[in-house]
Amino acid sequence: MKKRFNIDLGERLTKVCRVLGIDKKDMAKAARIVPSYLTELCKGTRTNPGIAVVYKIAKHYQVSLDYLLLGEGDMFLPGKEAEEKEIDDFIPSFEGLADLIWLLNNSNIFKNLILSQASKVYFDNEEFIKMEIKRLRGIAGKSTQELEEK
Predict the structure, then answer these.
(1) Span 9-31, pLDDT tens digits
(2) CATH number, domain 1-78, options 3.40.50.2300, 1.20.140.10, 3.40.50.880, 1.10.260.40
(3) What predicted TM-score, i.e. pTM, was given to this entire model?
(4) 56 Cβ contact list (under 8 Å, min separation 6)
């Protein structure tokens, strides 16, 4: 399964280059990786590319993450031109809550990214979170009058 994923991802990256008429050196530069690393990704010999690498390529060329990672949906984002844009950071920008909700409902990649970040926050702050849960459950079990008396 893992081997097939890497081959499929490589084929999709190669197809994006072909459709956009760019070479792999340009794509590697956009992702801020060395060209040999991208070549290995395209051949399927390199495994486990970081999500930041894939995200940078997707963002720079306005390619759908679902297409790149899963082979699902359209290659390019809806309503977007396949034009090069400078990306400074691995920080997606959202125009509002509606964008976040849409992504949560439509993108498994985004859901997994959110869950992985939530897990990291939980494990980094596990003791504090457990104390907060206990505190909030204690408050939830008390009446408003009992809380006002404190």
Answers:
(1) 899 999 999 988 899 999 999 99
(2) 1.10.260.40
(3) 0.52
(4) 30, 31, 32, 87, 90
